[in-house]
Structure formats: structure tokens, C-alpha cells
Design brief:
The complex is a heterodimer of chains A (515) and B (358). In chain A, 33% of the residues lie in helices and 23% in strands. In chain A, strand 21 and strand 22 form a beta hairpin. The radius of gyration of chain A is 24 Å and the shape is globular. Chain B is mainly α and 358 residues long. Helix content of chain B is 70%, strand content 3%. Classes of the chains: A alpha/beta (515), B mainly alpha (358).
């Protein structure tokens, strides 16, 4: 099924039967995709659906096992990103490749490998900035810029080479709602000027806002090519996941009781040159409620998590009080013994050891479970615990007790969250609970967090996904440059208000009032 | 044209078991070729290197004597290497164990001190090695100094300290000015396991170390702590394991075992202190630890194999006039073959005609 797009002549780029095999895994299986000149085409799919593999093939980073790429009707082989750029492809990656210490203009000149002088770059930069509303100061050092501004550098860098096709990989994951809207305006203008755009995302609202055609991938295959505006979000989600996605039940009324976590005027110096300091953080979480902490990546979320978990210690014991006990200077081990549980952002390498089996990975939060006795490991108890986590949290495993790295992102996330929830902690602190997780797993995880709170625990969710926070949180605060806004009931927040806090506008006004 | 390593989807357990065997055969073939190039018969060399030591009772005992320090040191090193900490200075810790334990032997020399001398000497040997091992660990945890450099450089400090002592204050006054101490009293001598045999109790210590380590690494939280620190350091911190405590403890353990090897060698084998008390056991043990894949039983086997090349090398030097350097070359070839076999079990080599980008 193909949505009708009127066009004359061949499409700009056409992929035919593209396949990529990694050992037993077929990451791409006979993918057909065509992009017309000037079209904004969405590539939708869960994590692990094969989007990144397909894009890397198109951009010449990896070689397809089979299939053909046609550029304006004639077959081409794209052997490297250099060849891709020569053909007229530009790509903005999810993770930026910029030198923090250099200025905007220098970063762009470096990428153009000496083709242009710094002066030429400056001139063209201001021209492009004007045309597409991409405000950038060429002489600012990159480390002083926000994520949105850094992304603009990447986009401008591509545009300087006059691409015919611009590929954007999850571009809004680091942006505030306002910054995202700004990006969409730019993309609309580019498309009107005849530049095609391949827009990779798993956020349906954006895709409906931008695109008229979307190709949906699931497990390496194209399941549909549709007009996203003619389908409901639920229908699209069902195509991506392969079954109906339900809503989270939050119906049980929440009746907050005793205070489980109190953070009191917590200050922490930054780690390293570009680390974020924490400034006068105040936060309370009561049993029975979910507290959400919103914010754009890199504003102190991981620092806050490290301070709460005890991986970094505060200077005063009473800066952090868990279950009535001042524990700012106690480590993660002692805090787990106070029935606190933690799930960090990074699944592999932080929450779990990639090459260790799931049963061994239960030992990471051993301080509060029954998997060891007087220094010895209870191997059978660890295996039993892993089995019951796998069963209770629907973790799909390739074998009984696999290495953590053999699980998909969503399944490993279910495991590491399950590992903490299964011991019924009084306090659970989660950083980015559903980052890069498929829709089905995300729903299960959110439900588990809400259920845990309703059963009488306090849950703190740090997330960049605003929709997620509006779905699960009872109270919410926004973190911006190490400051935490006051906690307010979720009903008192609007997306716009959150966006302003994320940008620090509300903060600045608050400071002005205070003066 | 270039080679590419692609991971195999499944690794057969048979291949994994046979890999070391294939590695040995390959190493012997390469070494045989080199010997043939040198104009000697590879078959005669194989006979001298392998068959004769294994068929002669004296050589078999010698094998255990040489394997003892290698196994003890390599077992200790495996604690460090598992936690991804690089103790290259076991040779120095070995020497310092011998120095501190040997000090007691010299202090009690000529007195009628009783049975307590030997146990205390062994204990001092462990303490000396452990304290010496703690120096690089302390520098790393306190000042973040690279432990590879400090542990290696401290080897030379230890060797020169021993050299100074046996040429100066500890020299035997009746020793015709030879740089060596007096011969240890019987009370300060580690006895052979069998009466009139060559193998001293150090070999028993090595076997005990193997068994204890197998339990520690496989069944205790401390063992898991090392594995987690080596494989995923952030996860180890998240588990509440302090990296400083880990570094200090593994260096103390590996230093202590190296020190025990040193004092056992001096009191059970050499019988006195002299400028050189090791043909580089502390360095060869690094090879042994990796040949044994950091597994305690594997290390014991690897220690025996490497000891065999030492003994075979000595006879080959005498009988075939082959240089001792060939033995070291063979140890290197063996390590390379074992590592290559390991890689080939997990990866497949593919010849790629033309690269598809980086």
C-alpha cells in the first residue's frame, strides 16, 4: 500500500530490496523505499526495527548484503560517507560530532576539510542562518551552546554542501518543545526549496506535523507506507509494535502519605570541565506518588541521579534524607539497605554488565536481596531471582540465563527495572526509564512504576520524555542548568510552562523577582 | 584487499576445548621450522625439549620446582588482571618477599631458634611482597598514577636493594668476598615434600592457592567484585564496590603471593640470598596468567608447560647447542598461538575484496 504522491520523473532516491545480515540476525530484510524531490519522508519504527541500519547503508557507512540503490533513476554504489556527500546526501546524527573547545565557524571549517577559508565559512554561515532562521553566532565556543544550538551547527554544516537529501536521526530527542517547533519551520522551508528530507523518529505527533508519507519498519521489514495525517496515532503505533497499544491505568486515586525522600539545599560542584553543578536542589517524594523531573539532556539529570543514588556523596549528611535517615554521606550500598532502589540511564555498563549473565547481574543490587550470605554467592538463589524477574516483567530472552548484552534494549530495561521493583523498595529512583525502548516495553515499564507507587512506595522518574511524565507523574519539577524548579501537581503544568522552565525563562524571571 | 573479523553466531564447546591443543601443535610446528632453519633436526629438538624431561624422574621433579613460583605469582596476578589492573611488578614483589623473609633467616642464623622461624619467615615473605605491591596501588588510588609504570620501575628498585644487601651488610664474612649471604640454617629451610626429594613445600602452597582462588573467584562476592570491576567499572561502582578498596586489595593479594613465591624459592631451593634469585619468574608469570586464561586450574597447567620449556631449553642448550633465546622465543610463539586460537574460536576471518567505508 502506497500513499499517492504526485511527481514527474524518477524519485530522487530509491532503495530496492535492501538487506543486511549480521550473523543470524537479518537487520534489514528486502526493504523498498523511495523519496521524491522536496518530500519530507518519515522513517518510523521501534528501536531495533532496522532504521539505523538502513540509514547507515544509505549514507555509505555500512555495506548492504543485497539490494540496489538508485539515485535519480540510475544505480549507484555508496562506498563511504565521502561518496554519499559527493552525491548530495547530508546527515545529522543523533549524537553530535563537534569539538567542544572550538568555535562554531571553526567546527564547520574543520568538517569541510580545508575546502573553504574561515572567512568564507563565516559569510555563508550568516547567509544560511538568515535564509532558514538558524540563528548561530560563528564565534561562540561550542561548549557554551545548548543542545538545540549544537544541532543547528550540524544542520548548517550539511546545508553548506547544498545537499539534495538531508537525513535527520531522531533530531528532537535533545530539544525543548519550542526548539523542536523552530526546527520544524526550518525543515518546511528546506522542503519548499526542493531539498528532500528523510526524517527518522518514533514520535508520532512530530511525524504527523511534518510528513505526508511515512515508511514503517518492524523487525527489519517494511510493514506499511502510509500518509500519517490520514491515520490515527493509535493505528500507527499498532503498525510499529505489531499489536494494539493500551493506555496506562492510573485510575486508583493517589493519597500521598509519609515523606520517603527529602532533598534539602543540595549543592554539588561539577565533575570535569563541562560537567553540570547542582545548585540548591530541594525535593520531596512521599509514599504513594510518582514525582517527575523533566528537563533537556545535560542539565544536571545524571548528576542528580548520582547524588541521589550515593555514587557521589554530598558534603552534608542531612542534604539527602531517605526514610527518615540522613544519608547524604552514605554510599549506594547503605542507601539500598534503607530500602531505596536505583535504575540509572545507561542499561549496558552501568545498570548491568554486558558480558555477565542475568543471574550474575542480580548481584549488582545484592545489598538488599537474598543472593549472597556472609560474602558467598548463593548461585541458585541468584538464578531463581533472575527467573522470577524474567517471568514477572515479561523479559524475552534468547535462552534461560543469557548474557545481558544478548537482550534487546527494551527487554534489558524491563529486567533492570524489574530487578529493583521485585524487592518492593520504599523509594525507587529511575533515570530515563524508557529511553530507546520499544512502545510495548515502555508501556509495561510505566505501568510498573505507577503500580509500585500506588502500592505505597515513592517513585522519582527523571525523564526527557514529557509525554511520559504527563502520563505517570503526580508531581513534577523541571531541572535547568543544575537548578530544580519548585514541585507542582501535574495538573498545574502545561507543556508550554514546562518548555519555558526547560529554557530557563521562568528561572530568569524568578531571579528577577527575587532581586 | 583486507581481512575482517566477524563474530561467529555460535561458538561450539568442542572448538573451545580443542583450541589450546591446536595452539600447541601450531607453536611446535613453527618452532620446529625455526630449528630446521638453524640446521638442526626438529625431531631431535622435540625429543630434547619435551620427551626427555617428561620421561626422566629428575626432570619431572625439576618441572614442579620451576612451576611453583610461576604458578604462585600468576595466580596472584590473575586477581589484578581480572579487575583490569596491571601489576607488571611481580618480580619486585617476589624479591622483596625474599628479602624480608630472608632477613629473619639471617637474624636467627647460628642461634637455636626453634620451629617458629620458618612459619614466621613465610609470613614475612607474604607481608614484604604485599607491602611492596601496595606502593603502586596507593599511588594509583591517591594520586591517580599509572600502576603499570610504577609497578615496573619498582622492580629495579627491589633488585638493586637486594644487590646492595648481599654485597654489603648481609654478605657472608666467610664467603671469600662472594656477594652472597650465609647459607640458611635447617630451621630456616623449607623442607622437601618427600625425604631427599627436590620438590619443596612451595608446590603445596601453589596447589592451595589454586584451590582457594577457584572458590574465591567462582563463589564469593569478592570474586564477583573483581569480575565486575574488570568488565563494567561503572556497574561496579553502582553495585557499591569502591574501586580504591578493590585496587588496594588485589595488589596486596598478588604482592603477597609473589612474596610467598620469593621466600619459598630462597628458603626451599636456593638456601641463601644472592644478587639474582629469579630467572625472570615475575615477568614470565604474566604470560602464564594469560596462557591459563586467568583461570586458577588453567594457570597451574600453563605454569607446568612453561616450566617444561625452561627445562627443555636448558638441555637443548647443552645437548644441541641451541641458544637459550630460542626458549624465550618459543614462549612468545606459544602465547601468540593461544591468543590467536582463542580469537579464531569466537571470530571468523573474512577476506574482503574492497572496503565499504570505515
Amino acid at each position: 500500500m502506497k500513499a499517492d504522491v504526485s511527481s514527474s520523473g524518477p524519485p530522487l532516491v530509491e532503495l530496492k530490496g535492501i538487506s543486511k545480515r549480521y550473523g543470524d540476525l537479518l537487520a534489514n530484510d528486502g526493504i523498498d523505499l523511495s523519496i521524491e524531490p522536496g518530500e519530507i519522508h518519515a522513517l518510523l519504527g521501534e528501536n531495533g526495527a532496522g532504521k539505523s541500519t538502513l540509514v547507515k547503508i544509505l549514507y555509505g557507512v555500512i555495506e548492504p548484503s543485497a539490494g540496489e540503490i538508485r539515485w535519480e533513476g540510475r544505480p549507484v554504489t555508496i562506498g563511504s560517507p565521502v561518496e554519499a556527500r559527493a552525491l548530495g546526501l547530508g546527515m545529522v546524527f543523533q549524537h553530535f560530532s563537534l569539538f567542544d573547545e572550538m568555535t562554531v565557524a571553526e567546527n564547520i571549517a574543520v568538517a569541510l576539510s580545508g575546502e573553504w577559508s574561515l572567512a568564507t565559512v563565516r559569510g555563508r554561515l550568516s547567509e544560511i542562518s538568515r535564509t532558514y532562521g538558524l540563528a548561530l553566532d560563528p564565534d561562540r565556543a561550542v561548549w557554551t551552546l545548548s543542545a538545540g544550538e549544537r544541532q543547528r551547527i550540524e544542520i548548517v554544516r550539511c546545508l553548506l554542501q547544498n545537499p539534495r537529501l538531508l537525513i535527520l536521526d531522531e533530531p528532537t530527542s535533545v530539544l525543548t518543545p519550542q526548539e523542536a517547533e523552530h526546527l520544524f519551520v526550518t525543515l518546511d522551508k528546506l522542503s519548499a526549496d526542493g531539498c528532500s528530507i528523510l526524517y527518522i523518529s518514533h514520535k508520532l505527533e512530530e511525524v504527523r506535523r511534518l510528513c505526508r508519507r511515512a515508511t514503517i519498519l518492524r523487525t527489519g521489514r517494511v510493514v506499511a507506507t502510509i500518509d500519517p495525517r490520514a491515520s490515527t496515532a493509535r493505528e500507527i503505533a499498532a503498525l510499529m509494535v505489531g499489536n494494539e497499544v493500551g493506555d496506562i491505568r492510573t485510575d486508583a486515586p493517589h493519597a500521598p502519605q509519609g515523606e520517603v525522600l527529602r532533598v534539602d539545599h543540595l549543592d554539588m560542584p561539577p565533575v570535569g570541565l563541562h560537567g553540570q553543578a547542582l545548585k540548591d536542589i530541594n525535593l520531596v517524594a512521599r509514599s504513594g506518588e510518582v514525582v517527575g523531573i523533566a528537563g533537556v539532556a545535560g542539565n544536571g539529570q545524571s548528576e542528580l541521579f548520582a547524588a541521589l543514588s550515593g555514587e557521589r556523596l554530598a558534603s552534608r549528611p542531612d542534604a539527602i534524607v531517605i526514610a527518615g535517615r540522613a544519608c547524604g554521606t552514605l554510599g549506594v550500598h547503605a542507601r539500598r539497605r534503607l530500602a531505596a532502589a536505583f535504575v540509572p540511564e545507561e542499561r549496558l555498563g552501568h545498570a548491568a554488565a554486558p558480558t555477565h549473565r542475568l543471574s550474575e547481574n542480580t548481584l549488582i543490587s545484592h545489598a538488599a536481596t537474598e543472593v549472597s550470605r556472609s560474602g558467598f554467592i548463593l548461585v541458585n538463589a541468584a538464578r531463581r531471582l533472575a527467573r522470577s524477574i524474567i517471568k514477572s516483567f515479561d523479559v524475552r530472552t534468547p535462552e534461560g540465563d543469557p548474557q545481558a548484552r544478548k537482550l534487546s534494549g527494551g527487554n534489558l530495561q524491563k529486567f533492570v527495572i524489574g530487578r529493583e521493583i521485585i524487592r518492593k523498595p520504599k523509594l525507587l529512583i529511575v533515570d530515563q526509564p524508557t529511553w530507546g525502548v520499544d512502545a510495548g516495553a515502555a508501556r509495561l515499564i510505566r505501568q510498573a512504576l505507577v503500580d509500585l507507587a500506588r502500592a505505597g512506595s515513592a517513585v522519582v522518574v527523571v525523564s526527557q520524555d514529557l509525554d511520559e511524565l504527563f502520563e505517570v507523574a503526580d508531581q513534577m519539577a523541571v531541572i535547568h542548568q543544575g537548578y530544580l524548579s519548585p514541585l507542582k501537581p501535574i495538573g498545574a503544568w502545561t507543556k508550554e510552562a514546562v518548555g519555558l522552565e526547560m529554557l530557563g525563562v521562568a528561572q530568569a524571571q524568578g531571579d528577577a523577582h527575587a532581586l | 584487499m583486507r581481512f575482517e573479523l566477524t563474530p561467529r553466531a555460535t561458538v561450539s564447546p568442542v572448538a573451545r576445548t580443542l583450541a589450546p591443543v591446536a595452539a600447541f601443535v601450531t607453536a611446535f610446528l613453527i618452532a620446529g621450522f625455526v630449528i630446521w632453519l638453524m640446521g638442526r633436526s626438529p625431531i631431535a629438538a622435540f625429543d630434547v625439549y619435551v620427551l626427555q624431561p617428561l620421561s626422566d624422574p629428575w626432570s619431572l621433579q625439576e618441572l614442579l620446582v620451576k612451576a611453583t613460583p610461576l604458578a604462585l605469582i600468576a595466580i596472584g596476578l590473575s586477581y589484578c588482571f581480572r579487575a583490569n589492573l596491571w601489576n607488571i611488578g611481580a618480580e619486585g614483589q617476589y624479591v622483596m618477599g625474599a628479602v624480608l623473609g630472608g632477613w629473619l633467616a639471617l637474624r636467627t642464623h647460628g642461634t637455636d631458634a626453634g620451629f617458629w622461624v620458618l612459619p614466621l619467615m613465610l609470613l614475612l615473605g607474604i607481608v614484604g611482597g604485599a607491602l611492596y605491591g601496595l606502593i603502586p596501588a596507593f599511588l594509583k588510588t591517591r594520586f591517580n598514577v599509572n600502576e603499570i609504570l610504577t609497578s615496573l620501575m619498582l622492580v629495579y628498585v627491589a633488585q638493586l636493594t637486594l644487590d646492595y644487601l648481599v654485597r654489603g651488610p648481609w654478605r657472608d664474612p666467610q664467603g671469600f668476598n662472594f656477594p652472597q649471604s650465609v647459607t640458611f640454617d635447617p630451621a630456616a629451610t623449607l623442607p622437601p615434600i618427600v625425604e631427599a626429594g627436590r620438590v619443596h613445600y612451595g608446590f603445596v602452597f601453589a596447589v592451595i592457592a589454586v584451590l582457594v582462588t577457584a572458590v574465591v573467584l567462582g563463589r564469593t562476592l569478592f570474586g564477583y567484585r573483581l569480575k565486575l570491576t574488570g568488565d563494567a567499572p561503572r556497574a561496579a561502582r553502582f553495585a557499591g564496590f569502591s574501586s580504591k578498596v578493590t585496587a588496594l586489595s588485589v595488589f596486596a593479594i598478588s604482592g603477597g603471593l609473589a612474596g610467598l613465591a620469593g621466600i619459598s624459592e630462597v628458603s626451599g631451593q636456593i638456601g641463601q640470598l644472592q644478587p639474582s634469585i629469579s630467572p625472570g619468574y615475575g615477568f614470565t608469570a604474566i604470560t602464564v596468567a594469560f596462557l591459563g586464561r586467568l583461570h586458577p586450574v588453567g594457570i597451574l597447567i600453563a605454569a607446568l608447560v612453561v616450566a617444561l620449556t625452561f627445562i627443555g631449553g636448558e638441555s637443548a642448550q647443552i645437548l644441541l647447542k641451541l641458544p637459550l633465546d630460542l626458549t624465550q622465543a618459543f614462549q612468545g610463539i606459544l602465547l601468540l598461538c593461544v591468543l590467536a586460537a582463542d580469537a579464531l574460536v569466537s571470530y571468523r576471518i573474512r577476506l574482503v575484496a574492497r572496503g565499504g567505508g570505515k
